Amino acid sequence: MDDAPRPRAPITEADVLAWLETAAAAVQAGELGATDLIDLLGELRRASAACADASDWALLAAREEGASLRQIAPVFGKGYVRAPAARLEKLHRQAQNSGQWLAILRHKQSV
Fold this sequence. Notes:
Elements: H1 13-28, H2 34-64, H3 69-76, H4 82-92, H5 98-110
Helix pairs in contact: 2-5, 3-4
């Protein structure tokens, strides 16, 4: 591996909390109404789906790079290997590897 920094997640928990604090203050100040909040809800739902797709790609890629289910399991919580194993099984019905998953995501984006 070279000394180049690894890619970081495009958004962090801290980013989300900071945004949430700002949005909550705007609502309390009367600057965001129901229509604005519904628009935000839609944006957040789409972003959440995109994060889930990226997570699935990282799961497939980690396995391809040799990560065991036991190594991956803590990311899913409580250290159980069933969660990542079940997710991989579901993903493998659609794509056999991270490259195929990325191609599916590109296709979804272009449609």
